[in-house]
Amino acid sequence: MNQPRSDQMTKTAVDEAAVIAYLQDCPDLLQQHPQLLEQLHLPHDCGNATSLIERQVQVLRQRLQDSSNKLSVLLYTARCNDVQFEKTRNLIIKLAACNQLHAFSQLLHQSFCDDFNADDMSLLIFTESQSFTGISGLRSVQLQQAQQRLDGLLNQRWALCQLPTTYQLEYLFITSSSVREFHSAALLPLWFNNQLLGFCCIVSKQKNHFHKQLGTLFLNHVADVASQVLGRLLQTSVV
Q: Do 121 and 213 share a domain, yes or no?
C-alpha cells in the first residue's frame, strides 16, 4: 500500500535533515570523496546571465561524459575483438590439421555458419581435375569460366566485404533458391604461390552483418591459412 503524501513529505524532510546534519559533522566529506562533485548540481545565481564558473562546470561535465562514452565503446570493441580472435584462432588450428579436401570444406562451412553467424558459404576450386566432383560444399570449376561469370571479383588479393550481384550469387550458390535473401557478404580469394586456387563467398541475410566499414583483419588471417592448406591438399590430391 502506498504511503499518504503527507507521510512521504515528512520522510523526505527527515532524510534531508539527516543529510544536512551529517554534512555539518563532516565538513570535509566532499574533499574525501571528490567524485560526488560530478553528480551534484549547484547553479550559480547570476540573474538571467550564466556565470562563467557554471558554464565551465557544464563544459567539463560534458567532456567527462564524452570521455566515458568513448571508453565504453573502446571496451566493447576490445571484448568483441577478443571473441573474434578466439574464434579465428580455433578455426586456424583446425584448418592446419586438415588432411582431406572434404574435411577442409566442411570445416570452413561449419565454422563460418555456426561460429561467425553466417547463413551460407560457397567454395570454388579452380582446377581442371574431375576428382573433386561431389564433395559437399565445394565446386570445382575452370578459372576462365569463373572469371567471366564473376567479373572483377576474382581480381582481389585480400578479403573484402561486398555483396555480389544476383547474377554472380546464382553462379556461386548454384543449388540455392534463396540467393535473393542474401543481403551482405564477405569474399575470400585463396592465393597460393601467386596462383588463385579458390574463392570463398560467405553470405548473410542480415544487411549489416558484413559491410564495407567492417575490418577484415581476421578474415585475411583465415584466408592466408586456408590458402596454404588448400595448396597443400591440391598438390597431394587428397580428396
A: yes
